[in-house]
Amino acid sequence: xxxxxxxxxxxxxxxxxxxxxxxxxxxxxxxxxxxxxxxxxxxxxxxxxxxxxxxxxxxxxxxxxxxxxxxxxxxxxxxxxxxxxxxxxxxxxxxxxxxxxxxxxxxxxxxxxxxxxxxxxxxxxxxxxxxxxxxxxxxxxxxxxxxxxxxxxxxxxxxxxxxxxxxxxxxxxxxxxxxxxxxxxxxxxxxxxxxxxxxxxxxxxxxxxxxxxxxxxxxx
Length: 220
Ligand code: 6GU
What we know:
Elements: E1 2-7, H1 20-27, E2 31-36, E3 49-50, E4 60-61, H2 63-74, H3 81-84, E5 86-96, H4 99-106, E6 111-115, E7 131-134, H5 144-155, H6 165-169, E8 191-192, E9 195-196, H7 199-202, H8 206-219
Parallel strand pairs: 1-2, 1-6, 5-6, 5-7
Antiparallel strand pairs: 3-4, 8-9
Bound molecules: 6-chloroguanine.
């Protein structure tokens, strides 16, 4: 699968794209491509944004700039990109990302993420996208953190990216757990400042451990 991220701040992704499960996805043939809108702007002085019609604070990412970047990356009319790819605008106005949506995005087709900055992207971006996605009920200064959260949740769903598939199945929000939180994890030391690891986990009784974990999930 190919993941394209359009942003004014590609360097914001430098650390994230070195993480082990992104490397694992690349080793499986998946691609991550960053495009800076500014590199393809048709405007002079590398302009990408403009003041809002009707007045108000801040700047709005121009739709002609977004179209030019999509056309440079894919070599087709910007409105046609969504014919073969899932094109997602990251915006606090979008559908909230959850585990089922991450799974849906991971099932393909290729994914395009459009990050806005400032006050966001000109509303006519709706002509270019298949989806608008938010990562939660709060406002971030730009779409980059939301794009990384989306890439993270989606990449983990790709077959073979997480070496032990059981660890994906037992994730906190997987359908198997009916949206309940995952069971608690502990590691050494067994006791610290008087805080003890539950005895059952140290017992070696796998059936009892399973029962205890299932019970913890129910309680949460
Ligand atoms: Cl996707 N973008 C911005 N700017 N803020 C957000 C968001 C996205 N999701 C939650 N808040």
